[in-house]
Specification:
Number of strands of chain A: 17
Number of helices of chain A: 8
Structural class of chain A: alpha/beta
Shape of chain B: globular
CATH superfamily of chain A: Thiolase/Chalcone synthase
Strand content of chain A: 25-35%
Number of domains of chain B: 1
Order of helices and strands of chain B: HHHHH
Number of strands of chain B: 0
Strand content of chain B: under 5%
Number of domains of chain A: 1
CATH topology of chain B: Non-ribosomal Peptide Synthetase Peptidyl Carrier Protein, Chain A
Oligomer: heterodimer
Largest interface: A-B, 18 and 15 residues
Largest sheet of chain B: none
Chain lengths: 350, 76
Amino acid sequence: MALFSNSRFKIAGISACVPKLVEYNRDYKWVSEKERNDLIKRVGVEEKRVAEKGTTTADLCFVAAEKLISDLSWKKDEIQLLIFVSQSRDYILPASACILQDRLGLSKSSIAFDVSMGCSGYTYGLSIISNFVANCGVKKALLLVGDVSTMTSYRDKTTYPLFGQAGTATALEFDENASDTFFNLQTDGSGHKAIMIPAGGMRNFPTKKMFEYKKFGKGIIRNDLHVALDGYAVFDFSLREVVPNIKELMEYSSRTLEEIDFFVFHQANLLINETIRKKLKLPAEKVPMSLKKYGNTSSATIPLTIVSELREEVSSKKLNLLLSGFGVGLSWGSTIIEIENICCPPVIEY
Amino acid sequence: MDIHDFIKKIEGEFEEITPGIITPKSKFRDVLDWSSVNALTVIALVDCEYDVILTADDFLKSETIEDIFSIIQSKS
């Protein structure tokens, strides 16, 4: 069942937190000046945020969540569910959601668990948490989503200049009268090697050898504990799958492209995002981008783009948004959601 | 679908290329200063303009602009 809808919940607010430290790709000395310029022009990332050693995704999400809870004037003991979506958890075990439940001071009767998803994580996370709120008696819930891509190698030009770091919080609450939200979620695990950290898990448990750097091509040196990205495979997947997924969702929801106020896409890279936009024949002003400022922040790209690019609109209007995340897994999913006057503080620096 | 039109589209995408330099027989790796980023740029251009998705294999078995254009024709 890829296509489904949910109602009886609404988004009350979204916040985002990024590290203070800015890295500029014009200073990325690992590649030549020409390559740097090509990367900035085609990939679309001018600068990104990099966390200091020891700062984790959970830390960024914690700051985002505290701000949102405070701005919403929510009482912490009313929050009954916390879902943490990330592929950079604090520990192999326990789940970071459990630690965050304690750090945030949520009740012991709250539900807290992790979901290991990347680029598609926001839409997947929304689908899970909205089910709890709409159907399981949960009145207030927090979806914490983000990644800290410290697993990239500086000497890998295919990953290092692309990925940035961010943590976000989305607050959801029960609403009997909320409009339907529509989802189209899909998976193709045959492409799991397209974006992968091959070692460090149970399949290839860490050994000393896995820290040894190897050359995989010109400008691509990394070890088995770093992210490996097959650019051609990711590109091929994104161009083949995302547009049909969105069109299928539009048809299922009986919405037209014109009825959507903004299309918030995962910030994969400029080439992919522009191709998708052009194939859907969308005007650029309806497709906000945060890639230039923050890079690809994995699962955080969609909420971060909403906060950084659409803050005024989402804080003051009723809007129909189409959200689409796609990448590691391979996994992809789109959501059509109505939001109105949500709490949306400016991007927080930590 | 015309190869000269295809060349014009490539010239439009890669502003650093002097118009008129590329011919059907040009080796694309030479004229486009081939890199993975430029390869992805060509894939994006071809998908937008012809609704055809080129693969890494398509480039591997091609040498000239004409070779790539033939693949686009065969896939469209």
